[in-house]
């Protein structure tokens, strides 16, 4: 597991633009090295803002969209098209605006599929298993980039502090009774998050500053799920100044004035 690096941008707007630029470069590099790439999306304010910035820049054409697999780190267990679904936000911000191969877009199924949250999680784990190659050495692909938001309580994806999902070793699980609505969700677990080559934790706002500090320190991932979000090769905490305001000096690097 990698030790996190911290980059700080002036505000949420600059942060979203910087993440978009980094994402385009990262995906283009991965595709040129391997022919295709795997990207894991997050819901939440900054994750969707970054996708909107990707859609807005002509540099998006550097990515070969038909050769990209899109996954989600978590989903709110709501019907397809519900505005609160992470999938809906991502489609509106970017996915409906680029030339993706629909077979390579992998949403987590909702209740409109006539299945339970548990079945949805199991199906997603199966889909990940089928996409994993021999060289991935595990039940999920080695995602090139896995993006995460961070809640003020330290949650990432739908892994909330001290809830059963943070103890679970299956790749994907159903979550019931989440403290943030909606209560029923599907989430990748820590083991799946840690299979990614790069994990990017993207956070803006003063209300998250305490969670950022705890997620960067040696907190336990049970109490602070963000502290367990680490990539195999690289972990980046991409922050705005407000979110970085409680990090001890020396740990941070300012990336834009
Ligand atoms: O509910 C969720 O919240 C987190 C954080 O969202 P934010 O708006 O506070 O940044 C998000 O990462 C997760 O995907 C989502 O389901």
Automatic annotation (TrEMBL):
Matching InterPro entries: 6-phosphogluconolactonase_DevB, 6PGL, Glc/Gal-6P_isomerase, NagB/RpiA_transferase-like
One GO molecular-function entry: 6-phosphogluconolactonase activity
Known EC number: 3.1.1.31
Record bears the keyword Hydrolase: yes
Pathway stated in the Swiss-Prot or TrEMBL entry: Carbohydrate degradation; pentose phosphate pathway; D-ribulose 5-phosphate from D-glucose 6-phosphate (oxidative stage): step 2/3
Keyword annotations from UniProtKB, A to Z: Hydrolase
Domain Glucosamine/galactosamine-6-phosphate isomerase: residue ranges: 11-230
Catalyzed reactions: 6-phospho-D-glucono-1,5-lactone + H2O = 6-phospho-D-gluconate + H(+)
PANTHER family: 6-PHOSPHOGLUCONOLACTONASE
Family membership noted in the UniProt record: Belongs to the glucosamine/galactosamine-6-phosphate isomerase family. 6-phosphogluconolactonase subfamily.
Function per UniProt: Hydrolysis of 6-phosphogluconolactone to 6-phosphogluconate.
Name of the protein described by the UniProt record: 6-phosphogluconolactonase
Gene that produces this protein: pgl
């Amino acid at each position: 597991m990698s030790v996190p690096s911290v980059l700080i941008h002036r505000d949420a707007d600059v942060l979203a633009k910087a993440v978009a630029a980094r994402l385009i470069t990262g995906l283009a590099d991965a595709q040129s090295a391997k022919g295709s790439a795997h990207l894991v999306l997050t819901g939440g304010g900054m994750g969707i803002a970054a996708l909107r910035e990707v859609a807005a820049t002509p540099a998006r054409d550097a990515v070969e969209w038909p050769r990209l697999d899109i996954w989600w780190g978590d989903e709110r267990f709501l019907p397809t098209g519900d505005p609160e679904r992470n999938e809906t936000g991502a489609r509106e911000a970017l996915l409906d605006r680029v030339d993706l191969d629909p077979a390579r877009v992998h949403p987590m199924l909702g209740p409109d599929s006539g299945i339970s949250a548990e079945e949805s999680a199991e199906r997603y784990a199966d889909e990940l298993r089928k996409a994993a190659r021999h060289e991935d050495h595990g039940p999920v692909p080695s995602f090139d980039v896995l993006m995460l938001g961070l809640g003020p309580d330290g949650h990432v994806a739908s892994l909330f502090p001290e809830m059963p999902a943070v103890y679970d070793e299956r790749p994907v699980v159903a979550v019931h009774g989440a403290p943030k609505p909606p209560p029923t969700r599907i989430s990748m677990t820590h083991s799946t998050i840690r299979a990614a080559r790069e994990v990017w934790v993207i956070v803006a706002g003063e209300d998250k500053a305490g969670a950022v500090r705890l997620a960067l320190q040696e907190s336990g991932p049970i109490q602070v799920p963000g502290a367990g979000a680490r990539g195999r090769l690289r972990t980046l905490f991409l922050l705005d100044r407000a979110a970085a305001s409680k990090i001890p000096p020396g740990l941070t690097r300012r990336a834009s004035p």
